[in-house]
């Protein structure tokens, strides 16, 4: 997987700033149903925020890494318990993609 350029990361962070988390991970961690939901959200929106519960920073970091590896997404940014993830959709959903919606807003 190609890593994002600095410009791409910056643009994704700007778009992600206004987003709310769409997936929340609890104490059970990365279950099969959570992975399905993450894949669906990434497929629909391309850019999503995920909130990870727990006070252990290392455990959260490990979970975020696991999410990225499992879903094939790129971690754009992590602030506290929130991770911003990006995965280019095979077929972009014009109505749901946060990237498309942001492009329309900024025009």
Automatic annotation (TrEMBL):
SUPFAM superfamilies: YhbY-like
Keywords assigned by UniProt, alphabetized: RNA-binding
Domain CRM: 2-98
Superkingdom of the source species: Bacteria
Pfam family, one: CRS1_YhbY
GO MF terms held by the record: RNA binding
Protein name (record): CRM domain-containing protein
Lineage: Bacteria, Pseudomonadati, Pseudomonadota, Gammaproteobacteria, Moraxellales
């Amino acid at each position: 997987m190609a890593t994002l350029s600095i410009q791409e990361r910056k643009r994704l962070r700007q778009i992600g700033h206004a987003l709310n988390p769409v997936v929340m991970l609890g104490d059970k961690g990365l279950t099969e149903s959570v992975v399905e939901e993450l894949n669906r959200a990434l497929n629909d929106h391309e850019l999503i925020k995920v909130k990870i519960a727990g006070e252990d920073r290392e455990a959260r970091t490990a979970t975020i890494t696991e999410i990225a590896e499992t879903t094939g997404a790129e971690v754009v940014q992590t602030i506290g318990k929130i991770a911003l993830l990006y995965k280019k959709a095979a077929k972009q959903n014009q109505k749901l993609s946060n990237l498309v919606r942001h492009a329309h807003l900024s025009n």
